[in-house]
Amino acid sequence: MATDSSYPAFEPAIVRCEPGRCRCEGDWTLDGIEKLDLRPQSVGWPKDHIELDGSGIGAIDTTGALRLLTLIAELERASHPVRLVGLREEHQALLDLVQERRASAGALAAAPRPQGHLERLGRTVLHHLNNGLVFLSFIGEAAVALARLALHPARFRWRALFGNIETAGVHALPIIALLAFMMGVVIAYQGGRQLEFYGANIFIVELVALTMLRELAPLITAIVVAGRTGSSYTAQIGTMQVTEEVDALRTIGIPPMDLLVIPKLLALTVALPLLTVFADALSVFGGMVMAQALLDVGFDDFLDRLPKVVTLTSFLLGVGKAPVFAAIIALVGCYQGFRVRGSADSVGRQTTVSVVQSIFLVIAADALFSVVLGGIGL
Amino acid sequence: MNEAAGPATAVVAVRGLWTRFGSTAIHENLDLDIDRGEVVALVGGSGSGKTTLLRAIIMLLQPAAGSIKLFGQEIVGIGDAAAFRLRRRFGMLFQQGALFSSLTVRENVAVPLREHTRLPARQIAEIADLKIALAGLPADTGGKLPRELSGGMLKRAALARALALDPALLFLDEPTAGLDPVSAGAFDELVVQLKESLGLTVVMVTHDLDTLWQATDRVAFLGEKRVIGYAPMQELTRSEHPLIRAYFEGPRGRAAREQTACRAA
Predict the structure, then answer these.
(1) Domain of B148: which CATH number?
(2) B140 and A66 in contact by Cβ < 8 A?
(3) Domain limits of chain A?
(4) What range does the domain containing B195 cover?
(5) I need a surface site. Which of A235, A346, B55, B252 has the fewest CB within 10 A?
(6) Cβ contact B19:B64 at 8 Å
(7) Which of A1, A7, A34, A241 to mutate: most B Cβ within 10 Å?
(8) What is the predicted ipTM?
(9) Chain A residues in contact with B189 (beta carbon < 8 A)
(10) Secondary structure of chain A: what % helix, strand, coil (to 5)?
(11) What confidence tens digit (pLDDT) does each residue in A258-310 have?
């Protein structure tokens, strides 16, 4: 630390006023400026004409020069003509440089007119409508690409398909198993207390099997996959967009749709129904464990009653929703990936949007299924 | 800054530096002194450890052994508080600019000011606008996002951020890489102009032979894990060392020298 003394500590910048003349003293550097107090009451500016003496300035940097220039401008606006004198040559040179650079940069454009509430509302609505249209055209493009690949199956990228099935399906098995099992346990536990109250213990089978198979297992699976896989689709395509890999694909002659979207779409349409069946089984198992522990309904009784109360239709309706959810998740995930523009920041933003939108659309689609299927009496 | 006399005119002093990645030594017993007010370039073939040396000097990389002094203060094993104070006194221009992509250029330049000073927001914005102007950018650049800028403007915006705290010492990592010749030339001029008017000490890593001839006072040639030549360009190109000869005697090296000779004539 001894050698540090060769770089002396700064002296805070000050302005000291005597009658008719003000002296700038100390270091007009970033450190010095921070403590500078120029309020009229603490400086005591003379009434009209001010002679500003710069000979006492120890050191000056661009920040100090800027402060000195703005000080002079402020004083002159307050109708105090200022004359700057006694500045050392090198300090004057720096002041000139700052002045010249500020002038050559030009003036800032006027700030845009503030928007009213009505205008903002209108713009937001238009923006969202437009987004919807762009998403629709993306779905259209995906459909065209799918049709093209159906006509030329040799161009289909099987390796990408199987790779995607593995990461989206096989690797999701542990988390789906855990969540489905716990959902079964929770439903059986909460419902079982009520059934026990009425002595209707055996109805636990209907409660668990119908709730899980028809509604909860497909929904939980889709939500987990949207968070796990949908987000990774957006992040992957988004990052490729940032690093211009998507453009590179185009110039090589590989349509990004064929390589990046269609295999993901198909992979998820295959993987999600399978995951749903898996979740069905694990959640019913969770219910069975709870039924035996809490309600004295043994595994034998449970499995005996299961096929009598759960029709094939209920099971298929549950699994049948999965491909639709899969398409929603894959398309939203890929679409948001392609919407990434420019930077790392944008990847994060679009990934968030992707997960929120796909979960929202999945639940909305589920509600639509309930209404329509209820309407036709299933 | 005050021209304080004293023994510590070396702004950067590296003594017996060893750095390694795993078991590979990058530098072995490397010495380097950079004096106040100098523009020094670090050159050498790919993998000679130029950027590693720069990262060690700016405290991004802990050396295995040796001593590095910045402004006379030892930085190997430095405490957090002292490192924070020291970081205020130098600026770094990263190769890709490394501007924060979610912030506008003005906000980017304001980040070091907000972190290191207690100035009011309006004054920080004014200072940021001045730095943007000093870097030679038009005033409306301040409100733009980094992704809206061209490569040359990005480098200038990054330079504005590096200059935010009025550092006495400026590090540049390949400042002209990826720029067109006109922008690269203008950038060299800008560096020299800033050095002369602000009294900066500049340390840069570069492969640009034109920059080496136009902008530097001394060039340190890295090879064989240490500095094998440290002299002004004129002198360095006359070196007999095979690595240095190979570097400067290629067609590009000769062209840059002839061009400089023509300009001088």
Answers:
(1) 3.40.50.300
(2) no
(3) 2-104, 137-375
(4) 36-49+84-264
(5) B252
(6) yes
(7) A7
(8) 0.71
(9) none
(10) 75, 5, 15
(11) 889 999 999 999 999 999 999 999 999 999 999 999 888 899 999 999 988 88
